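so my prof wants the structure for this chain in the tokens format not the other one, which i didnt know existed until like an hour ago. anyway here's the sequence
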Amino acid sequence: MRDILTPRRKRGIEILDSPDVDPQLVTRSLGDVARANALFGGVSSAIEELKDALNDAPLHTTLLDVGTGLGDIPWRAREVARQNGVELTTIGLDSAAELAVASRSSVDFSVCAHALHLPFANDTIDIVMCSQLLHHFAGNDAKLLLREMNRVARLRVIVSDLRRSWIAAAGLWLASFPLRFHAVSRHDGVVSVMRGFTPEELVDTVHEAIARRPVARRRRGFRVTTSWAPVH
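here's what i got, hopefully its the right format
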């Protein structure tokens, strides 16, 4: 039975998903997303999942962040890896050219490419991750994204996303005013929450994509993460 605090999943329309949005607005709104990630668990959830992968990582490890935005998560990942004695080379990939440029100060290498067609050969990147990206894709595209990440990864695939909840949607809406988020950030943030996953839905999506059922973990800030060794 569905939890009364968990609304039915809705696709909605995120304004920033449109290719016609002003690039300056995209950069401004992604700045709001980066702040929300820092305050409400987006960064910490992805990093907690990454820490497990770093336990088995070689001293020199590569990380690809798909849909990197402003590169806030790989920037933090590199610092955490260094504290664990791992030199992490970070690659930020985004389909928006302005974000590929904007993330250059946060990642070692910046790539402009589409997430559904990763420009890397099989088994070439040690850790491939995405944060708050999967909910942007529906149906077969979501599965294709996971298969592409699985194809490229050598050691681990990590997915971190939003956990759908009425509380999360209302909390984000209310917090966006004192944080002075742009109206587009406020709108898209709530739509993103309504597109989010329950842990069971995330596991089912991965299973449909690569025939594996990884463990999904509830994280603070209404986040959910999972990871697995790539299936080749």
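also thought this was worth mentioning. The first strand starts at residue 60 and ends at 66.
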